[in-house]
Amino acid sequence: MTQSPTASDALAREVRLHVFREAADSARVPQPPQIAAALRRPQSEVEEALRQLATGKVLILAPNDGNIWAANPFCAVPSPFRVETRGKTYWGICIWDALGIVAALGTDAVIRAACGDCSEPMVLEIAAGKLKRSEGIIHFAVAAHHWWDNIGFT
Predict the structure, then answer these.
(1) Do 26 and 115 contact (CB within 8 A), yes or no?
(2) pLDDT for the residue 147
(3) 14 by DSSP, 3-state: which?
(4) What is the mean pLDDT of each run of 10 residues along the chain (154 residues)?
(5) Minimal CA–CA distance to 78: which of 123, 125, 112, 117?
(6) Which H or E run contains 113?
(7) Among residues 144, 142, 143, which one has the least CA distance to residue 153?
(8) Beta bridge partners of 92
(9) What is the Cα–Cα distance from 125 to 58, expressed in whole angstroms?
(10) Is the peptide bond before 78 cis (omega within 30 degrees of 0)?
(11) In sequence order, which residues have a C-beta less than 8 Å from that of residue 56 and are 6 or more positions away?
(12) Long-range pairs, 102-107, Cβ under 8 A, ≥24
């Protein structure tokens, strides 16, 4: 027998959908005050929903303040992993997320980052779902199954 979703589950879903749609549309991850205003909900309820989503590893909250750091693959703050597409610049926490932004948006893009081997500027160009241009080495210092052990370091 399945349980029906609770009111807090429903709000968490509404918040999640809003955050990801806004991030995809605007290249900016909304924060609790903007989310509360857009959804016409008390900020305290939105903050609780964000904590619930963070516990479920749906997004990452910044330490000590409750703001969204990342709604993977979208990073809320400027990072060295820039995705240029649709006339906007998106940020990813890492190269994996930068590639994830391109996949999530389903668009052509240019990713600018630093080479994982030599730290020189690296450019990846994706067109029609394929890597058309690449320079440098992508390096994953931590195995994927350990990313959430310390997501801030990863």
Answers:
(1) no
(2) 62
(3) helix
(4) 73 97 97 98 97 94 91 94 97 92 96 84 92 74 66 57
(5) 112
(6) strand 109-114
(7) 142
(8) 81
(9) 28
(10) no
(11) none
(12) 102/126, 103/73, 104/24, 104/73, 105/24
H/E run at residue 46: helix 43-55
Q: Give the pLDDT of residue 33.
A: 97
Q: 7: closest CA among 30, 31, 41? A: 41
Task: Yes or no: say if 66 and 53 are a contact pair by the CB < 8 Å rule.
Answer: no
Q: Report pLDDT for 141.
A: 73
Upper half-sphere CA count for residue 24 (Cβ side, 13 Å) = 15
pLDDT at residue 154, rounded to an integer = 53
How far apart are the C-alpha atoms of 68 and 53, rounded to whole Å?
10
Q: Which helix (H) or strand (E) holds 96?
A: helix 95-105
For residue 62, count other CB atoms closer than 10 A to its CB.
Answer: 14
Copy the structure tokens of residue 148: 């959430």
Whose structure tokens read 């610049």?
89
CA 56 vs CA 9, 49, 87, 134: distances in Å: 11, 11, 32, 34
Per the CB < 8 A criterion, the answer to whether 61 and 68 are in contact is yes
